[in-house]
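call fold(seq) -> tokens
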Amino acid sequence: MAIAAAAEADNRVHRWPLTPRITRWLRTKGAAARREGFDADRAALGVEVERDARGHLVMTAVDGPESARVDDAWVLWIHGGGFCWGSARDGTGLRLAAGLGRPVVSVEYPLAPEARFPVAIDVCLEAYLAGVAERGPRVLLGGVSAGANLALGVLQRLRAMRAAGDGPPLPLGVVALTPFGDLAGEGDSYRVNEGRDAWIRWRGQQERFARAYAGGADLRDPLVSPVHADWTGGALPPAILTTGTRDLFLSDTARIHTAWREAGGEADLVLAEGLWHSYLSDARLPESAALTARLLDWCEGVLGRE
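ret:
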């Protein structure tokens, strides 16, 4: 099944984003079909959605488990798409809402190239702080690909605020699915998995997303590229990171996982044989179903801690 799915995938160099105008037009291609697919999945999973006061999408399971209905835990989720693509209508966030039975606030952050670093991190941090004030401090923070980058950026900002004495609570746990963590493209997998990842390439593709998002910022700034973040010097929440042996961002995941563990943090690493970037998005794959179950178990374990 994985071989068949890889054969259907398209990792050709598409050479966008180009200009803000062309990028906006490209986002409209297939938008209606994507929305219809999300709505069909939402209905099948029994999840209701609504916009909050800040425009973020709140996903709530209609018939969650009884334990979840009396629990005040919630999830702040950040979608992927190379900082330039995608929306809060994210399938992984939808499955988390259905499986955990807790509200998932999916952030609708401004996209590049119209909005460059650090605008998206600022919006995600504001959503976290507002959510804690309104929903309480029992929150899981997570994201996929570029969204995982932004989630790790939010965590860095939170730790800096706590170190300065103005300390909002840290999340109970962090979910980082195949993080786009090295916008300079220096990791080994950017070379050895170039053309082998079923969905994405670096040259002429992801490198363009990176530049469109970073603008004039240093690509090695830890808030731009969390592979360079310093996780020492304070408490770290438990984390789970996922990738595959054919993931273009395999090196990013491995480097962040290693740095997390060296800083004394607890971190699980899920590595799928032969799988590519964000394979969780393809619900046909048995590996996708297995990873979803693993994520739900991990999240429940973190939420069950005192």
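The chain has a mean pLDDT of 93.
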